[in-house]
Each structure stands twice: as C-alpha cells, then as structure tokens.
C-alpha cells in the first residue's frame, strides 16, 4: 500500500561523506587566504583548483561560490600589496632615494595590474593611479650644495650688536 522511503545505501553515505570532507577542506583553504601575500594566495588558489579537479562530485553552486570567494580574496591580497608598495615608494621619494622609489613603484604596478585582472573596484583603481602620479612628481628636486637660484654665501657673518658688551660695564 504505502511505498516506504528508500534508505540510502552504504555507498551513497560514503559518497556524501567524501563530498562533505572535500567541502570542509576547501572551506578551510579559502579561509586561510584572508591575510596572506599575493604569492601565497596564488598558491592556495592553485591547490583549491587541484582539489576541485580531483573531487568530481562537488556541487556546481559550491564550486561557483568557492571560485568567487577565492577571486575576491586574491584580489584583496594584491590590493594590499600594491598599497604597501605605494607607501614604501612614497617614503623613498621623500628621502630622495630615486632608484628605490622607481623599483617600489614598479612592484606596486605589478600588483595593481594583477588586482585589476581579478576585478578590483574602480574607486580603488583611480585612487591608486592618483597616488602613483603624486609619487612620480615627488622628490628629485632637492639639490645638495649651491645652485644658480641659491649660490654659495661667501659674505662674512655680521656681528651681533643686539647685546651690549659686558666688558665696558666695569
């Protein structure tokens, strides 16, 4: 009369357990990407992709969510690194260290381009470009020694006549 619900077999239970273990492993790896360097984030993304290739039974929506989250976290890592290199380049520009400034600015641009390919926000892109332009215009104008505008001062120092001599008071 009544059709009883079919209980899952042992193979189905093992399959479901394997899927849950794979999901848990991937969630842990994605969670570790929060505060890492761009290189570490890229390695973690590759590990997760390999795990997903091995686990053919992972649901499509889980894969999509994991890929989106990985992309956002990798983008964040590159944005943080680009900002850090911009600040370092700014310090070098203030210190008049032009070679270091150029190197740091180049590194910042590498991280910027990677962040842009991963989907960085337009506001952050514009802010980065403004900061990079400002850093390029900073430094390199301070001259050590005399210039045409400020020649070497060879005139003798004038005596200080504001204070009376104490030798005459006796």
Largest sheet: none
- Percent of sequence in beta strands: under 5%
Number of strands: 0
User: What's the order of the H and E elements?
Assistant: HHHHH
Query: Treating each run of at least 4 consecutive H or I residues as one helix, how many helices?
Result: 5
User: Which spans of ≥5 residues are poorly predicted at pLDDT below 50?
Assistant: none
Mean pLDDT, to the nearest integer, reads: 88
**Shape verdict:** rod-shaped
Task: Measure the end-to-end span.
Answer: 133 Å
* Radius of gyration, whole Å: 32 Å
Provide the structure class: mainly alpha
**Helix content estimate:** 55-70%
Describe the structure.
- The mean pLDDT is 88.
- With 170 residues, the protein is mainly alpha-helical.
- The chain is built from five helices and no strands.
- The radius of gyration is 32 Å and the shape is rod-shaped.
Descriptors:
170 residues, mainly alpha, 65% helix, rod-shaped, 5 helices
What would you say about this model in short?
With 170 residues, the chain is mostly helical. The protein is built from 5 helices and no strands. The radius of gyration is 32 Å and the shape is rod-shaped.
List the helices and strands and how they pair.
Elements: H1 10-31, H2 38-54, H3 60-94, H4 98-117, H5 122-137
Helix pairs in contact: 1-2, 1-3, 2-3, 3-4, 3-5, 4-5
